[in-house]
Recover the amino acids of this structure.
């Protein structure tokens, strides 16, 4: 790749933060900061003028804040946008809303501290910033802000042809959902369209750091008929509830005193992630009950092997198809392993889950 091939626009009202970001980005030979903007209005003008490949966008800015800027960018020039967020409650919630509106990823602002004239925590996030910019630049602009896609491919879900698996037990169904890049928007679509509770429990792993998964759960709770919450260690899994794995914790399930409960742990990262979709899928696969697995947009392969275990243990599995994925990574690997029964577009996943639940 040529030097400066990925052109980045940095948008932040803090001159100090702009300097940090520009220095980090320009140190990589494959990246080039073409300009910066101090507020959303300046950003819109420079997006049209410079046509950057990726934009980093602060949420809290004067004149035009990050969310309003993002909405306008998606209308005039859809492009990969990475949000810069504080770890405050308002900052994390705004980040979730931004991901629903088309931002492809986010970076938690570093905790800047001074001691003996030294700056801490910057090196810790440098690799994250560089990797997320490079990964975002690979995403097709047509995937950034797409409307509902109705096309289907590969195995089309056909209720008349599908022979539902039978279960020996009478426990209620568990729906296990795993996703990563592009996931908050996909989860919003699925959870808002699950209009029937059906006495089902839902377990969700979204690759996300601490501080953001609680805001994700609250946001999903606002749009869903299910009670959605961030999972707590040891709590009983109840019907008509959905549980989001907390950032930096693996989520598993286990029987305690004849009750199915959440088990959280800080075991080593799996596939580079904690929480890991594979860990959750493998755990659910061991439970003797009707199971439905769902794997959606995301980079890498996390969840593919776990989904195969789900299938071997009687689960009906759905994967998001390539056309509607922001990143067709995790679903692709799961499909190639033979773990996916049906690939369907995002707009059909909730209907598929509902129909599968009724047949359990």
């Amino acid at each position: 790749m040529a030097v400066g091939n990925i052109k980045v626009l940095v948008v932040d009202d803090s001159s100090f933060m702009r300097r940090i970001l520009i220095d980090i980005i320009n140190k990589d030979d494959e990246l080039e900061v073409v300009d910066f903007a101090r507020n959303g209005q300046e950003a819109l003008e420079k997006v049209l003028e410079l046509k950057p490949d990726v934009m980093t966008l602060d949420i809290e800015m004067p004149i035009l804040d990050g969310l309003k800027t993002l909405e306008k960018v998606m209308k005039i020039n859809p492009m990969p946008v990475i949000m810069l967020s504080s770890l405050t409650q308002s900052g994390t919630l705004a980040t979730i809303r931004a991901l629903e509106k088309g931002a492809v990823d986010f970076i938690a602002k570093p905790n800047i501290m001074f001691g003996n004239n030294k700056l801490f925590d910057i090196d810790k996030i440098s690799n994250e910033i560089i990797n997320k910019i490079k990964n975002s630049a690979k995403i097709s602009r047509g995937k950034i802000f797409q409307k509902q896609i109705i096309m289907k491919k590969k195995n089309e879900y056909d209720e008349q042809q599908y022979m539902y698996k039978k279960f020996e037990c009478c426990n209620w169904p568990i729906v296990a959902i795993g996703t990563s890049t592009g996931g908050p928007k996909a989860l919003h679509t699925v959870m808002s369209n699950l209009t029937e509770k059906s006495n089902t429990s839902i377990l969700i792993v979204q690759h996300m750091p601490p501080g953001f998964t609680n805001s994700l759960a609250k946001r999903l709770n606002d749009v869903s008929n299910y009670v959605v919450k961030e999972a707590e260690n040891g709590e009983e899994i109840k019907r008509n509830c959905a549980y989001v794995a907390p950032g930096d914790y693996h989520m598993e399930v286990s029987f305690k005193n004849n009750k199915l409960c959440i088990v959280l742990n800080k075991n080593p990262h799996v596939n580079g992630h904690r929480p890991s979709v594979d860990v959750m899928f493998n755990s659910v696969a061991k439970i003797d009950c009707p199971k439905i697995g769902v794997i959606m947009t995301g980079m890498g392969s996390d969840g593919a092997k776990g989904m195969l275990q789900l299938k071997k243990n009687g689960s009906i599995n759905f994967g998001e198809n390539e056309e509607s994925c922001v990143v067709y990574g995790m679903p692709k690997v799961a499909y190639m392993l033979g773990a996916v029964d049906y690939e369907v577009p995002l707009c059909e996943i909730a209907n598929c889950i509902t129909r599968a639940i009724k047949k359990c």
Summary: The mean pLDDT is 88. The two ends are 51 Å apart (CA to CA). DSSP finds twelve helices and 16 strands in the chain.
